[in-house]
TrEMBL record:
It comes from the Bacteria. Residues 1-28 form the signal peptide. Keywords: Signal. It comes from Paenibacillus kribbensis. The keyword Signal applies. This is Uncharacterized protein.
Length: 216
């Protein structure tokens, strides 16, 4: 199943996002929906034209996002098992991740969920632009592109390095697979002390459920 939505994002020059309102800081209780639409398309209207971002999560172990802007198509691939990020087949060496598995979470655990661990990411998107950065981060976090654009765009004129942490939760086994959900916290800098926004994914399966078509 496929879902389509359209948003407008004003841009300054080629990478800087004009954002005057910070996103509200939510909590993990917002993670209630199931990932039904595994292919989603968002059309981002910018001062430079239109960018179409399509995320494909049919295979959670090989997530694919395509971005079409000014007639050019860029393919983003993310492999969660080894934390590899590719853009048009080229591995991104400036994409960093640190995994921390613990029984303790600073965030409220959503009802019915169990905290699995957290993953600290950083990515310098100065060479790719903000729409591509949002597409990349969406591919990793499974949060909506439009939500991420607002968060990272608020400080884009000062910083093109994104720091974010995924808090991951698991749920009771269903349809012979384990559902998960991500609560992503974005930070101002590498100290990860000041939160600038949060974004939640829907629940998702990390392996093929049976019967096929079962939702988390």
């Amino acid at each position: 199943m496929k879902i389509f939505k359209k948003v407008f994002v004003p841009l300054l020059a080629s990478v800087f996002l004009c954002a005057t309102v910070l996103p509200s800081v939510g909590n993990a209780e917002q993670i209630t929906k199931s990932e039904v639409n595994l292919v989603q398309t968002e059309v981002i209207q910018t001062d430079r034209g239109e960018a179409t971002v399509t995320t494909n999560f049919n295979d959670d172990n090989h997530r694919i996002t395509t971005i079409v802007e000014n007639g050019k198509t860029t393919k983003i691939e993310f492999f969660p098992q080894d934390q590899t990020l590719l853009i048009d087949g080229v591995k991104q060496e400036n994409f960093n991740v640190k995994e921390s598995r613990s029984d303790f979470s600073l965030n409220a655990v959503p009802s019915g969920g169990t905290f699995v661990g957290k993953f600290d990411y950083s990515y310098d998107w100065v060479n790719v632009g903000i729409v591509f950065a949002a597409g990349i981060i969406s591919t990793v976090t499974k949060a909506p592109v439009s939500t991420i654009l607002v968060i990272i765009g608020a400080g884009a004129s000062l910083n093109t390095q994104s720091y974010y942490t995924i808090y991951q939760y698991s749920y009771p086994r269903k349809c012979e697979a384990i559902p998960y959900a991500n609560h992503t916290v974005f930070y101002q800098d590498a100290s990860r002390n000041k939160v600038i926004g949060t974004a939640d994914s829907a629940k998702f399966f990390s392996s093929q459920p049976y019967p096929i078509g079962c939702t988390p």
